[in-house]
Specification:
Helices cover 77% and strands 0% of the residues. With 822 residues, the protein is mostly helical.
């Protein structure tokens, strides 16, 4: 026992020491200091609060706030949902274009967490405080489209606010989620941080789920769908959310693996075409689009509580809290499962288990009692306990997705940059929105099922005339008639859902949604069997991206010393290990050291084991590095060089001498190339993309320069000077933050004040510089688009040439190491 206490004390002490040492500077091999992790995760509570509230007001086929509370009927809600999805498609395109063409010291995502979070919070408050119940007096009697005038106006307001919220909230939520993709290129670090973030920000829905039933019991007669409940809770949470979002913005820094001189100007259709060829994106997208039915059973417990009255508010709060805690367990387990089996196996396993636990709910809802006359354990508490277990396990499996989704999406975006050379993260959201049409077409099934099996106004009117139903006393002590009358008086009643107070209709609907969820869960798991982007491949891609960025900056004379050291050591190690075989690694030495109870021996054995594992990993990664360094010596590399030379020899004027008809013929020929082997497929894809790039550039030349064959080349001097200034600012920023950390350690308040002022001034300088760089790049837009084939060719030839100078670059590395040693 004493040894365990000592070990625990040592572990805690070690963690605290690591936190102190790496609060501002990440440990070796990682990219995020603890300060950044705490800010990203803690501020995420605000993000999650706003996410829960915003999602509750965004149209879907089964939105409870819009349907049960505001009173939009299921079929009408589906019509509004279709309209909102169609409108969201162009809005997502606008968001994608803004993000993908953002070049700022603040980053691609950080600025939008605050800029889009504030209007999203305001829209949320407006949505719950809009005087829907007063529309009857405001707009008078009469009908529009066969519906009451006030009801049609309510639908219009809901739709309008949804347009606003969809733009701001999705922009805001995507910025926060995607920020993790660029905070670190290390996939395991991203997984670990996603876990910490998930655990911390899951407090938000836990708090909300705990508070809602208790508040409902106090002020709305246990009615969870009363609009007053949302009006009391949502506004203060919205304000808190914005404050916490500012914490994320202030304390994080993006770290994209990309050349400093890389020009970010991406045509919408080009980025769309590039994402269309990302096979891993389609795997995840298909799982999302085809699994639309899986969530149908998510509201079962709410229905049983609200319409079945199976327990009181305090008991339901406890049930909600228990089910919610499954998410905490799942998120804590996720990194360990991912480390042991990999993302693909965990994706498949958790989704299969979802099918099992949803199916287990089916017999339970058939036996659970919803009357206060029966308090027996078998028909009352046992089925409820079984349902809680099923939901707990289902939430446990879904918690894995909260960790897997951002890390898998980050890997997919790394793959996109690997195959296309561009970070076009925003376009993924656009195609996902386009694919939402599939979800729209299919999710209407749920609304159809609702209407067919009893959730409609006609059936509800019959139920409200049934004295047996209206006089039913539920287990929470309330009478159905009193609840309905209270809801009508509050102005937050959707008559269609009152049919669920009939226990026979409720039980039928529960069966229907469970069966639908089982089908959705089965369909959802199928695409994951085609996902084969392993952790090893992702690490290899990041190494390749670093090499490419290194040579791009080297060719533009903007390479810094840190990048030079990292890449030279990476390539040298790969060359050293390329012919080495992996060695078996066991923990036998650690066990023997523990048996001896020698702390130094245990530490040494652990270090030896860790070094052996890392060496085996580097052996596996060596081919990625070596193949990249030799990329221009294989067949496709030689073809690329020949094409690049052809373009360069023709020059700028040569781009305008080729007719579009000729380029289209070449594209047609490229599409007819054989693709029997992997090498042939790679060559064919390259040739198709090469032809398309030339066609697009020729069209731009005609657009910007007319029939002239002359493309005006801008002077690079000013832009290069701005890049040099940016590098100087980067170095100055690093020094200032290191000095600030030391000043805080020494508790030198005067120096802290001075350094904070200098950092603030430097940030202002960065903002001005970024504007100058953006303006300079925008002035070159016509040239960069029209001359893209030539610019790509020059870049490739320069890269190929620089790859041959690695030994010379190593000499610079050796000189640098010597200078540092001196």
């Amino acid at each position: 026992m004493e040894n365990k206490k000592t070990n625990l004390k040592t572990t805690v002490k070690g963690i605290l020491t690591d936190v102190r040492l790496h609060w501002n500077e990440p440990e070796k091999g990682k990219y995020m200091p603890f300060k950044e992790i705490v800010a990203y995760s803690g501020g995420g509570i605000g993000v999650k609060f706003l996410a829960v509230m915003a999602v509750n007001m965004i149209l879907s086929s089964t939105n409870a706030l819009i349907g049960n509370t505001i009173g939009v009927a299921p079929i009408d809600m589906y019509i509004l949902y279709v309209i909102s999805v169609l409108v969201n498609i162009p809005l997502s395109g606008v968001r994608a274009n803004i993000i993908d063409n953002t070049r700022s010291k603040e980053g691609k995502y950080r600025p939008y967490i605050v800029k889009m979070g504030i209007p999203s919070a305001i829209t949320t408050i407006l949505f719950v405080w809009f005087p829907y119940q007063a529309f009857g007096n405001l707009f008078g009697e009469g009908t529009f489209f066969g519906k009451d005038r006030a009801y049609v106006v309510t639908c219009a307001v809901v739709l309008l606010l949804n347009f606003v919220q969809q733009f701001f909230y999705y922009f805001f939520a995507e910025s926060y989620d995607n920020l993790l993709h660029v905070l670190s290129p290390n996939t395991q670090e991203r997984t670990d941080v996603a876990t910490i973030k998930g655990v911390v920000y899951s407090l938000a829905p836990s708090i909300l789920n705990l508070a809602m039933p208790i508040m409902a019991q106090l002020i709305t007669n246990n009615n969870m769908y009363d609009i007053r409940l949302y009006r009391y809770i949502y506004p203060p949470l919205s304000i808190i959310s914005v404050i916490l979002c500012i914490v994320v913005y202030v304390n994080t820094k993006e770290k994209i693996v990309q050349a400093k001189t890389h020009v970010i100007q991406i045509k919408f259709m080009d980025s769309l075409r590039q994402v269309m060829h990302n096979k891993y994106f389609w795997v995840i997208a298909m799982a999302t689009w085809l699994g639309f039915l899986e969530s149908a059973a998510s509201g079962i417990l709410n229905w049983l509580y609200n319409y079945g009255g199976i327990c009181n508010g305090a008991q339901f709060s406890l049930i909600t809290m228990v089910c919610q805690n499954a998410g905490l367990v799942g998120m804590l387990l996720a990194p360990f499962f991912i480390r042991k089996w990999g993302k693909r196996a965990v994706l498949i396993g958790t989704n299969v288990m979802n099918v099992v636990f949803i199916a287990l709910m089916l017999p339970v809802v058939h036996v659970i009692n919803m009357s206060d006359s029966d308090t027996g354990f078998i028909n009352t508490y046992f089925p409820l306990i079984m349902l809680v277990i099923c939901f707990w396990m289902n939430n446990l499996m879904n918690a894995f997705a909260q960790i897997l989704t951002p890390t898998v999406n980050a890997d997919i975006r790394d793959y996109q940059q690997y195959i296309s050379g561009e970070r076009i993260d925003g376009m993924f959201s656009t195609i996902t929105a386009l694919g939402g049409i599939i979800t729209v077409a299919t999710s209407g099934i749920i609304n159809f099922l609702y209407d067919k099996f009893g959730i409609n106004e006609a059936t509800a009117r019959e139920v409200m005339q049934d004295p047996e139903v209206m006089s039913r006393v539920m287990k929470n002590g309330t009478v159905v008639g009193d609840v309905i009358n209270s809801a009508v008086e509050s102005g937050s009643a959707n008559v269609s859902y009152f049919s669920l107070y009939d226990t026979n209709i409720l039980r039928t609907m529960l069966t229907v949604v469970i069966v639908a969820s089982i089908g959705g869960a089965v369909i959802n798991v199928i695409p994951y069997f085609f996902y084969d982007l392993t952790e090893l491949k992702q690490k290899g891609m990041v190494k390749v991206l670093k090499i490419r960025a290194f040579f791009e900056d080297f060719g533009n004379s903007t390479l810094n010393d840190n990048d030079l050291v990292e890449v030279v050591e990476m390539v040298s190690l790969a060359n050293e290990l390329i012919d080495e075989k992996e060695k078996p690694v066991t923990k036998s030495a650690i066990k023997a050291a523990r048996a001896s109870k020698d702390k130094s021996a245990i530490k040494a054995a652990k270090n030896e084991y860790k070094n052996a594992v890392n060496r085996n990993m580097e052996i596996k990664l060596a081919p990625f590095v070596v193949n990249e360094m030799n990329r221009f010596e294989n067949e496709i590399g030689r073809i690329q060089i020949d094409d690049a030379k052809m373009i360069c020899e023709a020059g700028l004027n040569g781009l305008g001498l080729v007719e579009l008809s000729q380029l289209k013929q070449e594209l047609k020929a490229a599409k007819n190339l054989p693709a029997r082997t992997e090498e042939e497929k790679e060559i064919k894809n390259y040739k198709i993309n090469f032809c398309r790039t030339r066609i697009t550039a020729r069209k731009y030349q005609i657009k910007y320069y007319g029939s002239s064959t002359v493309i005006e080349k801008p002077d690079d001097t000013a832009l290069n000077e701005l890049f040099n200034i940016e590098e100087q600012y980067d170095k100055k920023e690093d020094i200032l933050y290191k000095n600030l950390f030391e000043a805080k350690e020494n508790k030198n308040k005067e120096q802290i004040k001075v350094l904070n002022h200098e950092i603030k001034e430097l940030k202002d300088d960065f903002r001005k510089l970024n504007k100058q760089i953006n303006d300079e790049q925008n002035n070159r837009l016509s040239y960069t688009r029209s001359a893209k084939p030539l610019l790509d060719a020059q870049k490739l030839l320069k890269q190929a040439e620089n790859y041959t100078h690695f030994e010379e670059i190593k000499e610079r590395y050796e000189a640098l190491k010597t200078d540092k040693a001196v």
